[in-house]
């Protein structure tokens, strides 16, 4: 039987997407990168199980501070932070199956989409995008992701 990840890899190759070759983790383990998450007391950066990694809701911080700039800069930083977490888990944005985008204000939807659309590899993951009443901190955006971990 052809494995799911090899199907995805073939599809991405056909689509002309550069497929990263990360070193996968085998056991069920926490991903301890805390970039843009609540930190070790409340969460792990992500958790892996059965070849899938589930990230925490990740916010636009860099070196512990919210990034300067509006929704565009914040969206780019969240995508970057999730990329670092995925890398520790042995995968990358190329293998993300699903994202959930939480916006503090739906007025930022179009601007968020322009950055999201440009930075994420295609084909794009499945996605849910919603406005929430409020995010912790003064964050405009938080994103969580579910990704497959490719076989080595
Ligand atoms: C972020 O933190 C790292 C490690 O402490 C430091 O080397 C780097 O200069 C910092 N970057 C900025 C832009 O503050
Ligand atoms: C959302 O953004 C719009 C446009 O900037 C602004 O008019 C509105 O007050 C904001 N809503 C909230 C709840 O902050």
UniProtKB/TrEMBL annotation:
Signal peptide limits: 1-20
Residues in coiled coil: none
Gene Ontology MF terms: deaminase activity
Top-level taxonomic group: Eukaryota
Organism: Ophiobolus disseminans
Tagged with keyword Disulfide bond: no
Keywords in alphabetical order: Signal
Cellular component terms (Gene Ontology): cytosol; mitochondrion
Name recorded for this polypeptide: YjgF-like protein
Keyword Metal-binding tagged: no
Family: Belongs to the RutC family.
């Amino acid at each position: 039987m052809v494995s799911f990840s090899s199907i995805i890899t073939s599809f991405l190759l056909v689509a002309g997407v550069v497929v990263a070759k990360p070193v996968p983790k085998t056991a069920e383990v926490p991903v301890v990168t805390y970039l843009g998450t609540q930190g070790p007391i409340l969460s792990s950066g992500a958790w892996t199980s059965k070849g899938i990694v589930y990230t925490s809701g990740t916010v636009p911080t860099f070196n512990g501070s919210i990034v300067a700039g509006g929704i565009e800069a914040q969206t780019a930083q969240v995508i970057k932070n999730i990329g670092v977490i995925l890398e520790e888990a042995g995968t990358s944005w190329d293998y993300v199956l699903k994202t959930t985008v939480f916006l503090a204000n739906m007025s930022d939807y179009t601007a968020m989409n322009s950055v999201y659309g440009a930075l994420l590899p295609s084909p794009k993951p499945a996605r849910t995008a919603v406005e929430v009443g409020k995010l912790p901190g003064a964050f405009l955006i938080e994103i969580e992701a579910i990704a497959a971990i490719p076989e080595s």
